[in-house]
Amino acid sequence: MRxxxxxxxxxxxxxxxxxxxxxxxxKHVEAPRRWGGSGGDVPFxxxxxxxxxxxxxxxxxxxNSFLPVIRVVIExxxxxxxxxxxxxxxxxxVLAFTRVWMRFSVLAVLLGLAFxxxxxxxxLAALSIPVxxxxxxxxxxALEAGKAELLLRQIFGATPALPAAREAGIRLRxxxxxx
Length: 179
Prior knowledge:
The chain has one domain (2-160): 2-Layer Sandwich (Alpha-D-Glucose-1,6-Bisphosphate, Chain A, domain 4). The longest helix has 35 residues, at 123-157. The chain has 179 residues and is α+β, with helices and mostly antiparallel strands. The chain is 41% helix and 22% strand. A hairpin with a 2-residue loop joins strand 3 and strand 4.
């Protein structure tokens, strides 16, 4: 069910410090082009809002209004590592349009029910309007969000790690925090 909602939140923990994680992400995000598209081989276009905070979208060669807007916050985590918090949302204008569409589709359902109660089969068509809108939004967003999540996990999975505790001369005590 999580994959069909038009938002997605997840966290990636890395072994490298926040500065390394931010530098790694910068390699994969370019400034948006005026007429769209990409000038290089980077998967994302957007910007760094401030140190450790990014906003971008995936670079695609086709039009998809349901392309997620991705917001990333990189913060310190355990033993010098970084926690990368990722939130994917619909573009605000697309979300506003979708809300209006769904409100009108509720009216269509009410009209469709009225037709059905009068014995007219035409009412069934009106019942499909909200289903179509919800499916279009959910599937289009989920496909794009899944691709972006995979790319981000690959980027941060390749982030250089800190030396192992033994090599650094540090003893680690691992405790279960109940999470």
